[in-house]
Design goal:
The chain is mainly beta. It is 12% helix and 36% strand. The strands form 4 sheets. It has a 7-stranded antiparallel sheet with strand order 3-2-6-9-10-5-4, with helices on one face. A 3-stranded antiparallel sheet has the order 1-13-14, with no helix packed on it. The protein has a two-stranded antiparallel sheet with strand order 7-8. It starts with 15 loop residues before the first helix and ends in a 14-residue tail after the last strand.
């Protein structure tokens, strides 16, 4: 089939997010100028550059108790920093719990019973048991097409890796089985990997 998004797809549910999948999940922690912590998952997230390491995520929607986007976006706009925590399979239910809609004053770490620690380079909390956490300095917020849609870019200035995830000098994803987002209400988990050699590497 073929459809134009402006004209609709005629299916029971929008297939777009199922087509662009799997997507890593950025479990993003922030802290507002008022000192309140926030934690929320974003599936429009990825790495975008090596040197310096940079990431991005897209935030969609708004809240009645915020002047700019939702809690995550508002906090980043205030402070200029955020932390991306990687989601392992064991934390799937905790991650899902933090997707609930709460008033701006609610601390999702506390609401979901998630242990947190302070970041090293930025004034922000992080998920204590995450396989990895990326401390980021926001570089730009880009207004996207559509109502209340923004892309946030950040430079990674500090990286935490859980010791048990580093095997023989390699960050081994099979030790924690990262969670990824598919379409609809579906998720996937990485349990095994394989390698391919690029053509240029053979020369």
């Amino acid at each position: 089939m073929f459809y134009k998004p402006t004209e609709g797809h005629g299916l029971p549910h929008n297939p777009f997010s199922a087509i662009v999948s799997p997507r890593p999940i950025g479990w993003i922690s922030t802290r507002g100028n008022n000192g309140l912590d926030n934690l929320a998952p974003y599936s429009f997230f990825n790495a975008v550059a090596y040197e310096p390491p940079q990431v991005m995520f897209a935030a969609n929607g708004s809240k009645a108790d915020r002047d700019f986007g939702k809690d995550t976006l508002s906090n980043i706009r205030e402070t200029g920093v955020f932390c991306i925590n990687i989601v392992d399979y064991a934390s799937r239910d905790l991650m899902n719990a933090t997707s609930a809609s709460h008033p701006a004053h609610v601390n999702e770490f506390e609401a979901a019973g998630i242990d947190h620690m302070e970041c090293e380079t930025i004034p922000c909390g992080r998920v204590a048991k995450a396989p990895a956490s990326l401390e980021c300095r926001m570089t730009q917020i880009v207004q996207l097409e559509g109502k209340s849609s923004h892309a946030v870019f950040g430079e990674v200035i500090g990286i935490h890796m859980r010791d048990d995830c580093v095997i023989d000098g390699v960050f081994d994803v099979t030790t924690f089985q990262p969670l990824s987002r598919l379409g609809y209400r579906d998720y996937a988990v990485v349990k095994e990997v394989f390698s391919l050699t690029r053509p240029d590497d053979k020369k």
